[in-house]
Specification:
Number of strands of chain A: 20
Largest sheet of chain B: 2 strands, antiparallel
Number of domains of chain B: 2
Helix content of chain A: 25-40%
CATH class of the largest domain in chain A: Alpha Beta
Low-confidence stretches of chain B: 1-7
Mean pLDDT of chain A: 86
Shape of chain B: globular
CATH superfamily of the largest domain in chain A: DD-peptidase/beta-lactamase superfamily
Low-confidence stretches of chain A: none
CATH topology of the largest domain in chain A: Beta-lactamase
Mean pLDDT of chain B: 84
Oligomer: heterodimer
Largest sheet of chain A: 6 strands, mixed
Strand content of chain A: 15-25%
Radius of gyration of chain B: 24 Å
Number of strands of chain B: 4
Order of helices and strands of chain B: HHHHHHEEHHHHHEEHHHHHHHHH
Structural class of chain A: alpha+beta
C-alpha cells in the first residue's frame, strides 16, 4: 500500500464519525420531542388540526349580449362519519330523506368499499347523498339532531336560465378515480365539468378551493378554529365566461329543429365566434341538475336518437353540393378551369359508361350559373380534368395529394379545434386511402363522387359553416370558438389568428357571385330578401333512405355578419328545409327579430315532424 | 485456506450474516410500522387478517417475501457477473429511465411509475444499484486514480449526473438528489476534502441565511441570518486555518509531494485561498437572500416552505407539524402496536410512505425509534467495515456507494420527519410502503454482500 492509499483509507473514520454524529443528533432530537415536553402529547390527546375545504363558487356563464345563461344555486350534501353514526334509526333517516332502506344499505356498502372509495376512513366525513335542493334539505335539517354522525355541507349546483344550449353548456358531475389520480386539485366527492364548456373550461370555471383549519380532538369532534382563523384561506371564485352564442338565435334554431334530426351552426365570419350551435334532438339542461341527474343521464344515453351527441361537431355527414364551392376554388387556383370554362351537362355527367345524374338546366354552363343551379356535371368534369392532367401532376396520386392539401387548408379532414369536447375530424380521403381500397388501380373517374360532396367525403356541420365563413371572408377563417371572453384572462391565441386557405382571394369573389345567383334565381330562391344580399348554396346529400337537406350560406354579401350551415337529416331537397331555416336564422340575427310573416313560417316549420321510424341508426 | 472441494461451502460461510440479521430486523420493524399506519380501529388484529392480500399490510408482506427471495437468488449467483455486466446493466437502466416518462401515466404530477396490470413499478429505484456498479467498474480499472486526473473525475461525475438528469425529467427531484450522496464515495476515493467541505458549507450558509432572514438583529441593522452566517464563516475560516496552515500539516504535504515551495510561501498561499473562501461565502449568502427577496410573495413563501423553513399549517408545513405531534405524543415507551391515535385518524399524510417514521415514534416511543436509528447506524458502520476489507477497488467503490445511498436516505427521510431537514419526498429504506423501493434497496445491499462473499476466492 502506498502512503496515499493509507491516508485515503483513514477517511472511513471521517465518514463513520459523520454517521454516528447524525444519528446522535437525531436521537437527541427524539429525546427532546418525546421525553422533555408534554406539549406534543397534550396536542395529540386533545387537539389536532383538521383542514376543512371551502368550495369556491363556479364561474357564471353569459351569452354574447350579456344575458345570464348559467349561475349557481345553493345545494346541500349530506356527509356521514361512520364511527359516529352507530345507533341511528335507519328507518327514520330514510323516511326523512325520501330514500328506501335498500338504497341506504347499498350506499353505506359503497362508502366502505376501498376500491371504489380509496380515501375512506371511519373517522372522516364521507359523502352520503349529494345535491339536495333547499326544500329537501330544510325538511331534513329539522331532524338532523336525531342523526348523530350525519353532517351537512353547503355546495352550489348549476342552474340554467334557458332550456336551450344543453350541449354547449354541458354539465357538472362528481369526479371519478381517474380525475383524482390525474390532478392533485380533486378530492373524492368534488365536482368536475363533464361535458361542453363546463369541461373544456373546467380550469377557469372551478376557481381555487379555500380551507379553514379547525382543531379536532382525538374522537374527531371539532373544538374550534386554529388561531382564530389566521391560517384560513378564502376560496377564489371561478372566472366568469362570456359565450359568443346569441341565445335568441339559439332558441329559434332549436325551435325550428324540433321533431327533426340534425344541426344548425352559425359563425360570425370576421371573428370565428360561433353564434349558435343547434343539435337535435336536444334536452333541457335544467333536468340534468341535482339528484335526478344520474337517472336522466341514463335515460338519454339509452335513447336510440342519441340526444347526448352534439351533432354539430360530433356528427359527420356527406356535405353534398355545398362542397362544390370548395371544388370550384381548387380548380380555379390550380388553373384547371377559368370562370369562363363551360362544361356540358345533359341530365348529368356521362363518361366511359359512368353516369352521375343531374336535374334539367341549360347546357353547357360556365362556373357562376353552374354553382347557381348546382350542376353535378360541371364539377365531375372539373375533377376528372384535374385528376387526369398528366402535364401538371405526374400521377393520379400526386393530383389527389394536391387536392387533399387544398381541402385540409379549408379546415376539412382534421378537427378544427373548437373549444368544446367531442369534436370529430370528418373524412377527407388521400391517395394512400384509395391505393389501399383499389389496390393502386384507380383514376379520377373512380373517385368522381367526391367532387359533389358524396362518396368518402364527410364533414361536420361546424366544418360546413366554417366553409361559409371562409367564403364570406374571401379566403381565411379564424378557428371557430364558443367562448368570447374569459374574466381576467386572454383567450387562447389560436382563437384570434387568421388561417388562410391555399386559394387566392380573387377566386373567392367568383364563388360569391355564384352563391348570390343561387339565391336570386337558382336553388336558394326562398332565401331571397330585399333588405340585404344573401349568398347561399344548397345541398341534397344522397343517403340510404331519404336524402339529407343541407344549406350553407352567409349574409350580407359585403361585410358579412353571419355564416351558417343547416343540416336536416333525411329532410329531402336542400330547398325543403335547409334554405328556409337558413333564411329565418339569418333574418333573426341580422334584424334582431323575425317579421310577422317569417314568424308564422317559423311556427309552421317548428310543428313539422320528420318520421325517422325507418332510418334510426 | 479452503480447498476447491469445499469452495461452495466457503462462499456460504463468507456471507456476512450480521448484515443479513440487521436487514431482517429492519424488515420486521418496517412491517410493524406499516401495520400501524394502515390499521383502522375496529378491524380484527390477528396476524391472518393483517396478512390478507387485499390490504396494504398484506401486500407489503408479499413485497418483503419477494425481496428476501430476490436476496437469496443474488447470493446464489456468481459474483463476477456484476463486474462483467456492470456497463450493460447501467446502459439498460438509463434507457429504461429515458423511456419512463413516455410510458408512465401521470400520478399527481410525477411521471416515474410504469404500470404492469394492477402493479406499478418505479424504475428510478433500480437505477441506484446500476449506477453504483458502473462507477465501481470504471473506478476499479487498473491504475485508476481519481486525484489529479480531470478526465477520470469528469467521467465519474457524468456517470452520476446522467441518472440524475433522467430522474429530474420524471419530475422526481427527491429521488434525483440521492445521487449527490455519491460524492461521499468520491471523497473516500480521493476527492479532495475541501471540495466536500465547500459544498456542504455553501448549503449550510444558504439554508441558515434564509432560515433567519426575517428575524432582525443588532437593532434592526442586520438580520439574525446575517449574524449567524458571519459567525459560521468565521468558524469555518478558523477550522480551515487550523487544518491547512499549521507548519506540521504543511511539512507533511511537502513530504507527500502534494505541495511545493517553502513552508512560509505555502502558508501564505493557503491563507489567500482561505480569504477567498470567506469572501465567496459572503457573496453566496448575499446573492441567495437577494434572489429570494426579489421573488413574488407566493414564490418566496414556496421556497421557504419547500426548504421546510417556515411553519405553514395549511400547506406543506402541515405534514411536518402533524408528524412532530405524532412522534412527540409517543413518549418513552410509545402507545403500543396498532394503538397510535394520530396515525389512525389519518392526520399525517403519506404516513405509510415518506412519513412512516411517525408511526414508529408514536407506537414504539423513544425506545423503539432510537432502536431503529441505532440499527441503521449499525448497518452503516458494518457497510463501512465490509467496504474497507474488499481486496479490489471494484468492491470497495460499490460498498461506499451503498453506504452513501443508505446514509442519504436515512438523513433526509428521518430528518424531514423530525423537522430538521427540508421536506424531500424519498422513502425510508425497508420501512416505507411499496415494492419498488424495497426491491431496489434489497438489490443494492445483496449485490454488495455477494461481492463481499467472493473476496476469499479472489485472494486465493
Amino acid at each position: 500500500m502506498t502512503n496515499d492509499d493509507y491516508s485515503l483509507s483513514r477517511r472511513k473514520y471521517v465518514l463513520g464519525a459523520a454517521a454516528v454524529l447524525i444519528v446522535a443528533i437525531y436521537i437527541l432530537r427524539l429525546f427532546f420531542l418525546q421525553l422533555t415536553s408534554d406539549d406534543y402529547k397534550a396536542r395529540a390527546d386533545s387537539n389536532a388540526f383538521m383542514r376543512r375545504i371551502q368550495f369556491p363558487a363556479r364561474g357564471a356563464i353569459t351569452d354574447r349580449n350579456g344575458k345570464l345563461l348559467v349561475y349557481n344555486q345553493p345545494a346541500y350534501d349530506i356527509m356521514v362519519v361512520m364511527q359516529e353514526q352507530v345507533g341511528v334509526d335507519t328507518l327514520d333517516l330514510c323516511e326523512s330523506l325520501g330514500i328506501d332502506t335498500a338504497w341506504y344499505e347499498r350506499r353505506m356498502a359503497e362508502i366502505k368499499d376501498r376500491n371504489r372509495n380509496p380515501g375512506y376512513s371511519r373517522y372522516t366525513q364521507q359523502l352520503f347523498m349529494s345535491q339536495l335542493s333547499v326544500a329537501e334539505f330544510s325538511n331534513f335539517q329539522e331532524k338532523l339532531f336525531r342523526f348523530p354522525g350525519f353532517y351537512i355541507q353547503k355546495r352550489s349546483i348549476r342552474q340554467y336560465a334557458y332550456p336551450n344550449g344543453a350541449h354547449i353548456l354541458g354539465d357538472v358531475g362528481e369526479v371519478g378515480p381517474a380525475d383524482i389520480e390525474a390532478d392533485n386539485y380533486y378530492r373524492s366527492g368534488d365536482y368536475i365539468g363533464t361535458q361542453g364548456i363546463e369541461r373544456s373550461y373546467e380550469k377557469q370555471l372551478r376557481g381555487i378551493k379555500g380551507s379553514e383549519i379547525l382543531l379536532r380532538d382525538v374522537h374527531g369532534r371539532i373544538k374550534g378554529r386554529y388561531q382564530d382563523g389566521r391560517f384560513d384561506v378564502q376560496p377564489v371564485p371561478g372566472k366568469n365566461l362570456t359565450l359568443s352564442i346569441d341565445i335568441e338565435l339559439q332558441k329559434l334554431g332549436e325551435r325550428l329543429m324540433q321533431g327533426k334530426l340534425g344541426s344548425i351552426v352559425a359563425i360570425e365570419p370576421a371573428t370565428g365566434e360561433i353564434l349558435c350551435m343547434v343539435t337535435s334532438p336536444t334536452y333541457d339542461p335544467r333536468t340534468m341538475v341535482g339528484r335526478q341527474r344520474g337517472k336522466r343521464h341514463k335515460e338519454l344515453s339509452m335513447d336510440p336518437m342519441k340526444p347526448l351527441i352534439n351533432r354539430a361537431i360530433g356528427g359527420t355527414y356527406p356535405p353534398g353540393s355545398t362542397f362544390k364551392t370548395s371544388q370550384a376554388l381548387t380548380f380555379l387556383e390550380e388553373g384547371i378551369i377559368t370562370p369562363e370554362t363551360a362544361y356540358p351537362c345533359s341530365h348529368g355527367f356521362h363518361y366511359k359508361g359512368l353516369t352521375v345524374g343531374c336535374h334539367g338546366h341549360g347546357s353547357p354552363l360556365p362556373l357562376v350559373p353552374a354553382i347557381a343551379t348546382s350542376c353535378n356535371g360541371y364539377f365531375c368534369w372539373g375533377l376528372l380534368n384535374m385528376f387526369s392532367n398528366r402535364t401538371k401532376y405526374a400521377t393520379v396520386q400526386e393530383a389527389m395529394t394536391t387536392w387533399k392539401d387544398y381541402m385540409v387548408s379549408m379546415g376539412f379532414g382534421y378537427k378544427l379545434g373548437v373549444d368544446l369536447p367531442g369534436e370529430k375530424r370528418g373524412m377527407i380521403p388521400n391517395a394512400e386511402f384509395y391505393d389501399k381500397a383499389y389496390k393502386g388501380s384507380w383514376t379520377g373517374l373512380t373517385v368522381i363522387s367526391i367532387s359533389i360532396g358524396q362518396g368518402e367525403v364527410t364533414l361536420t356541420p361546424l366544418q360546413i359553416a366554417n366553409l361559409g365563413a371562409t367564403i364570406a371572408n374571401r379566403g381565411w377563417f379564424i378557428t371557430p370558438h364558443i367562448v368570447k371572453e374569459i374574466q381576467d384572462e386572454e383567450l387562447d391565441p389560436i382563437y384570434t389568428q387568421q388561417r388562410h386557405t391555399k386559394v387566392s382571394p380573387h377566386h373567392y369573389e367568383t364563388i360569391v357571385n355564384g352563391m348570390q345567383r343561387a339565391v336570386e334565381g337558382g336553388t336558394c330562391r326562398a332565401a331571397h330578401t330585399s333588405n340585404y344580399i344573401t349568398c347561399g348554396k344548397t345541398g341534397t346529400a344522397q343517403n340510404r333512405g331519404h336524402d339529407h337537406s343541407v344549406f350553407m350560406g352567409f349574409a350580407p354579401r359585403e361585410n358579412p355578419k353571419i355564416a351558417i350551415a343547416v343540416y336536416v337529416e333525411n329532410g329531402g331537397w336542400g330547398a325543403t328545409y335547409g334554405v328556409p331555416f337558413g333564411a329565418l336564422m339569418m333574418e333573426q340575427y341580422i334584424n334582431g327579430h323575425l317579421s310577422e310573416a317569417s314568424e308564422a313560417k317559423a311556427e309552421m316549420y317548428a310543428n313539422r315532424v320528420i318520421n325517422y321510424g325507418d332510418y334510426v341508426r | 485456506m479452503a480447498t476447491t472441494s469445499d469452495k461452495g461451502k466457503s462462499v456460504f460461510a463468507s456471507i456476512d450474516w450480521l448484515t443479513i440479521f440487521i436487514y431482517i430486523a429492519l424488515l420486521a420493524m418496517g412491517w410493524m410500522s406499516i401495520c400501524g399506519a394502515c390499521y383502522e380501529y375496529g378491524e380484527p388484529r390477528d396476524f391472518l387478517s393483517l396478512a390478507s392480500f387485499d390490504t396494504r399490510t398484506g401486500m407489503q408482506l408479499v413485497w418483503i417475501g419477494s425481496s428476501m427471495l430476490l436476496g437469496a437468488l443474488i447470493l446464489m449467483t456468481d459474483d463476477r457477473i456484476f463486474d462483467t455486466f456492470a456497463y450493460v446493466l447501467y446502459a439498460a437502466m438509463m434507457l429504461l429511465l429515458l423511456a419512463t416518462p413516455f410510458l408512465a401515466h401521470d400520478i399527481k404530477g410525477s411521471l416515474s411509475w410504469i404500470k404492469f396490470g394492477s402493479f406499478s413499478l418505479q424504475p428510478a429505484e433500480f437505477a441506484k444499484f446500476a449506477t453504483a456498479l458502473a462507477l465501481a467498474k470504471f473506478m476499479g480499472t487498473y491504475g485508476f486514480k481519481l486525484k489529479g486526473s480531470w478526465k477520470n473525475m469528469t467521467i465519474s461525475v457524468l456517470l452520476m449526473l446522467l441518472p440524475m438528469a433522467l430522474i429530474v425529467m420524471q419530475k422526481e427531484t427527491g429521488s434525483a438528489l440521492v445521487y449527490i450522496s455519491l460524492c461521499l464515495m468520491l471523497y473516500r476515493e480521493g476527492l479532495p476534502g475541501f471540495i466536500l467541505f465547500l459544498g456542504l458549507s455553501a448549503v449550510a450558509i444558504v439554508v441558515v441565511g434564509l432560515r433567519f432572514s426575517e428575524t432582525p438583529a443588532l437593532g434592526g441593522l442586520l438580520t439574525l441570518g446575517d449574524v449567524l452566517v458571519t459567525i459560521m464563516i468565521l468558524c469555518f475560516v478558523g477550522i480551515l486555518h487550523f487544518i491547512y496552515c499549521r507548519p506540521a500539516t504543511i511539512r507533511e504535504a511537502i513530504s507527500e509531494g502534494s505541495a511545493t515551495g517553502s513552508v512560509q510561501s505555502i502558508r501564505q498561499r493557503r491563507r489567500l485561498y482561505i480569504a477567498l473562501f470567506a469572501i465567496g461565502a459572503f457573496i453566496i449568502h448575499l446573492s441567495a437572500s437577494t434572489l429570494v427577496e426579489h421573488l413574488a410573495d407566493h414564490q418566496k413563501n414556496r421556497v421557504y416552505v419547500l426548504l421546510g423553513l417556515r411553519d405553514d399549517p395549511s400547506g406543506v408545513g402541515y405534514n411536518v407539524i402533524q408528524a412532530k405531534i405524532a412522534i412527540g405524543s409517543g413518549g418513552l415507551e410509545g402507545k403500543g402496536f396498532l394503538n397510535g391515535t394520530q396515525t389512525k385518524l389519518k392526520y399525517v399524510p403519506e404516513q405509510e410512505t415518506d412519513f412512516i417514521f411517525c408511526t414508529v415514534g408514536e407506537e414504539q416511543g423513544f425506545l423503539g425509534s432510537a432502536a431503529v436509528l441505532l440499527l441503521f447506524l449499525a448497518l452503516l458502520l458494518r457497510l463501512l467495515h465490509i467496504a474497507e476489507r474488499q481486496p479490489y477497488t471494484f468492491g470497495r467503490v460499490y460498498g461506499y456507494c451503498v453506504f452513501s445511498i443508505f446514509l442519504f436516505h436515512l438523513v433526509i427521510n428521518i430528518g424531514m420527519v423530525l423537522g430538521l431537514m427540508p421536506v424531500i419526498g424519498i422513502p425510508l429504506p425497508f420501512f416505507s410502503y411499496g415494492g419498488s423501493s424495497l426491491w431496489g434497496f434489497t438489490l443494492l445491499l445483496f449485490i454488495f454482500l455477494r461481492i463481499d462473499a467472493g473476496r476469499q476466492r479472489l485472494l486465493r
